[in-house]
């Protein structure tokens, strides 16, 4: 059994360059020296997180980021009966706060754009498989069939003007597929507000960087080898963007010799069997990157590549197949490196 916090801690270590300074600052420390990294580590959204900022306002920015993470966690967590999402799921309808309303609008847009490969209404399926509470099990076909009837964003009644969402019969939602990406985007806005020189946040498998490193060089973000948690499959050198990875290795369990992972295909109710082991999305938009990392994993390589070709102005991707093959879209091929051979995917 692989617990999600272990996967999150491993993913947080994949920021290869520029994190050495952050690691020198102990958890919860704050330093005013602009030449030093100000860093905090915390556990929220069911994963370990690190927030780092450089500059004379770094301490204030990191403190504000921690408050924002904790605020959004309390608002969006399905694991808390006091959260807005839990209240919505219990009542079946609610007038949502600005953050939840923004997430619903983005989730519905991503769902429509990806043909339903991303869908926030899969939560009852996540519960059935035990991914909501780590009580893992393989649901019988009859149970999955009944639950699939409740899956589909088309069954949601969303009044964007009033911010009121009404669920379909038996439905429940979960923002887990985009909440961390949305959160990292909010932290980038705070970094801008506090005029930090540069910074980064690692939220489990989500890394978002602000500007370049203090020395002007790019941040180096490693992509975990899906087959070996101790190895790096490749490195991206980036500035001002989110680098978000979804992989079946992050949360999974084994039963009767078969491994089942948490990325469910909304069309089957089962763990996606797309031939992909991980998908990394690079985008300036953290929410989009988070949602697409799931959607493209569900799609599989051929459909994911075609989708990228239609939306290449919004994101780039690194796709790692079950057999270890690596595909890198053209927009980031010159900033990706690996000890292994990889194929660059052209736009046409």
Tell me the layout of helices and strands.
Blueprint: H1 4-12, E1 15-17, H2 19-24, E2 37-44, E3 47-54, H3 58-76, H4 84-91, E4 93-95, H5 98-113, H6 123-129, H7 141-148, E5 157-159, E6 164-166, H8 179-193, E7 198-203, E8 206-210, E9 219-225, E10 228-238, E11 241-247, E12 252-255, E13 258-261, E14 276-283, H9 286-299, H10 301-310, E15 316-321, E16 326-329, E17 336-337, E18 343-345
Parallel strand pairs: 16-18
Antiparallel strand pairs: 1-9, 2-3, 3-7, 4-6, 5-6, 7-8, 8-11, 9-10, 10-17, 11-14, 12-13, 14-15, 15-16
Short description:
With about 350 residues, the protein is α+β, with helices and mostly antiparallel strands. The chain is built from ten helices and 18 strands.
Walkthrough of the structure:
With 348 residues, this protein is an alpha+beta fold. Helix content is 32%, strand content 27%. The protein is built from ten helices and 18 strands. The protein has helices at residues 4-12, 19-24, 58-76, 84-91, 98-113, 123-129, 141-148, 179-193, 286-299, 301-310; strands at residues 15-17, 37-44, 47-54, 93-95, 157-159, 164-166, 198-203, 206-210, 219-225, 228-238, 241-247, 252-255, 258-261, 276-283, 316-321, 326-329, 336-337, 343-345. The strands form four sheets. The chain has a nine-stranded mixed beta sheet, with helices on both faces. Strands 1-9-10-17 form a four-stranded antiparallel beta sheet. Strand 2 and strand 3 (47-54) form a beta hairpin. The chain is globular. The protein starts with a helix and ends with a strand. The model is unreliable at 1-13 and 16-34 (pLDDT under 50).
């Amino acid at each position: 059994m692989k617990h999600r916090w272990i996967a999150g801690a491993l993913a947080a270590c994949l920021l290869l360059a520029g994190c050495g300074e952050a690691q020198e600052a102990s958890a919860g420390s704050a330093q005013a020296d602009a030449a030093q990294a100000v860093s905090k580590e915390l556990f929220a959204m069911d994963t370990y997180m690190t927030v780092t900022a450089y500059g004379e306002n770094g301490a204030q920015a990191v403190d504000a980021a921690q408050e924002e993470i904790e605020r959004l966690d309390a608002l969006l967590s399905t694991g808390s009966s006091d959260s807005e999402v839990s209240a919505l799921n219990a009542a079946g309808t609610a007038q949502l706060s600005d953050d939840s309303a923004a997430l619903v609008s983005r989730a519905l847009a991503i769902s429509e754009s990806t043909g339903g490969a991303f869908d926030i209404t899969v939560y009852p399926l996540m519960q059935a498989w035990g991914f909501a509470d780590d009580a893992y099990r393989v649901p019988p076909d009859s149970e999955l069939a009944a639950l699939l009837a409740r899956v589909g964003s088309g069954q949601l009644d969303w009044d964007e003007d009033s911010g009121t969402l009404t669920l379909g019969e038996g439905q429940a939602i979960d923002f887990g597929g985009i909440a961390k990406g949305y959160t990292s985007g909010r932290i980038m806005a705070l970094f801008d507000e506090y005029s930090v020189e540069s910074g980064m946040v690692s939220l489990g498998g989500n890394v978002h960087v602000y500007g370049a490193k203090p020395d002007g060089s790019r941040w180096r973000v490693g992509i975990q080898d899906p087959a070996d948690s101790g190895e790096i499959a490749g490195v991206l050198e980036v500035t001002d963007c989110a680098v978000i990875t979804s992989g079946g290795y992050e949360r999974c369990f084994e039963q009767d010799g078969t491994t089942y992972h948490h990325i469910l295909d909304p069309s089957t109710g089962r763990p996606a069997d797309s031939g992909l082991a991980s998908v990394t999305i690079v985008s300036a938009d953290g929410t989009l990157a988070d949602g697409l990392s799931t959607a493209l994993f569900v799609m599989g390589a051929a459909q994911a590549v075609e989708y990228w070709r239609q939306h290449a102005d919004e994101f780039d991707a690194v796709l790692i197949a079950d057999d270890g093959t690596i595909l890198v879209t053209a927009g980031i091929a010159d900033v990706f490196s690996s000890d292994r051979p990889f194929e660059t995917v052209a736009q046409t």
